[in-house]
Specification:
CATH topology of the largest domain: Rossmann fold
Order of helices and strands: HHEEEHEHEHHEHEEHEHEEHEHHHH
Helix content: 40-55%
Strand content: 15-25%
Structural class: alpha/beta
Length: 408
């Protein structure tokens, strides 16, 4: 497999940073390809007795700062390019937060919705068998990702124990609390974004800040409630079927009670139904894309009127749209920083497992707030010093911290 063809977007981003003289040429060369690409074929015995071969990957982009860290996804569109790009981002995200990790990612190319629970368990165990020699608490620490649940993580941990003869909870993060997981992990992504926004809008009265949130899933809904509790004016939220808008502000607690009943958010009677496209175009102080990637593109970017955007989703703004927003002076708090709460609390889980400690949710959130706030202020400082975007500043900090070896 030719690794040089794996991550086109990674190369473009690094080339841009080199052109702006934010990183050196050797840094670019060493970072644009992953250290290690491992592919395996998993022999799955289906419930009807037939044999099916599934393709699986584990890509370790960098281990310069410590063990690789990154999730495992089960999805039919998993491919080496996607996994390599995600591993690249994880290397930078862990370095930006100054965690003692590198970056990795993995996946299996299949749609778990078309398989039984027994078959999914078999795939989970086959994955661990295939990659056990390159995984470990001090080599590469996986985590849940798309379609991989705490139950699946439990099967993988159990299989690793069978293979090695040692039950090491630090082999994998994202476990249920009762099985060695960390308090605060379920809210970590939203909490991280929330702590950044507390810093960003510290000089403004919360009720003067209008907010629109695209996506009312785990991260979006928790962030909406945190901001609402602080007095921010959350005027719009959405799910995949539509959005609700109230210029005076929504009662987010009421929206949260409405949503679990499988009611579309647009049916909530505390505001006016609008489309997701209309939500992105609202005149608000803060726009929060917390749903899917590529939500803001060159086709709809001219409609965006927010002055600040925080990327809670991964890659919600395309590169072309970002250039237009940058030219207009829109402040983008990049996903590299904005959604790093998850991997930070994963590190806390790993640390607790290694040292046989148990932290309270309050302790976890206190530590998370300190690390996230420090990273935000450092990113802002570098952005101002070099007169570049927060995203470019975040990349520079991360790449400098990875500390590529130089020959004397």
């Amino acid at each position: 497999m030719k690794t040089e063809t794996l991550c086109v977007d990674c190369k473009e981003r690094l080339a841009s940073l080199e052109e702006k003289k934010l990183i050196g040429h050797e840094d670019r060369q060493l970072l644009e390809n992953p250290e290690r690409v491992i592919q395996a074929e998993l022999p799955l015995r289906r419930d009807d007795g037939t044999l099916e071969i599934l393709t699986a990957f584990r890509i370790q982009h960098s281990t310069k700062r410590g063990p690789a860290k990154g999730g495992i996804r089960f999805h039919q569109e998993v491919d080496p390019a996607e996994v390599a790009a995600l591993a690249f981002v994880m290397s930078l995200k862990t370095a930006l937060l100054d965690l003692p990790y590198g970056g990795g990612k993995g996946g299996v190319q299949f749609n778990p919705k078309e398989y039984s629970t027994a078959e999914i368990e078999q795939v989970s165990r086959l994955y661990m068998r295939a990659f056990a020699d390159v995984l470990g608490p001090h080599k590469d620490v996986p985590a849940p990702d798309v379609n991989t649940t705490p139950e699946i993580i439990g099967w993988m941990r159990d299989e690793y124990a069978h293979i090695t003869g040692k039950d090491e909870p630090a082999i994998i993060t994202g476990k249920p609390v009762e099985k060695g997981g960390s308090e605060g992990r379920g809210t970590a992504t939203a909490m991280g974004a929330y702590f950044i926004l507390k810093e960003r809008f510290a000089a403004q009265a919360p009720q003067e800040v209008s907010v629109a949130i695209q996506g009312f899933g785990n991260a979006g809904s928790i962030l909406a409630e945190l901001l609402y509790n602080d007095g921010f004016k959350v005027v719009a939220v959405s799910d995949s079927r539509g959005a609700i808008y109230n210029e005076e502000g929504l009662d987010i607690h009421a929206v949260a009670k409405h949503k679990p009943e499988r009611n579309p958010i647009s049916k909530f009677d505390g505001g006016s139904p609008i489309s997701n496209a209309a939500l992105l175009a609202l005149e608000v102080d803060l726009l929060v894309p917390a749903a899917l990637g590529d939500a803001i593109t060159t086709e709809n970017v001219t409609d965006v009127k927010a002055s600040v955007i925080i990327e809670v989703a991964n890659g919600p703004i395309t590169t072309g749209a970002e250039h237009i927003l940058d030219d207009r002076g829109v402040e983008i708090i990049p996903d590299l920083l904005a959604n790093a709460g998850g991997v930070t609390v994963s590190y806390f889980e790993w640390f607790q497992n290694i040292h046989n400690e148990r932290w309270t949710e309050e302790e976890v959130n206190q530590k998370l707030q300190g690390m996230i706030a420090d990273s935000y202020h450092r990113t802002k400082q570098i952005s101002q010093e070099h007169e570049v975007s927060l995203r470019d500043a975040a990349y520079k900090i991360a790449i400098d911290r990875i500390g590529m070896p130089k020959h004397s």
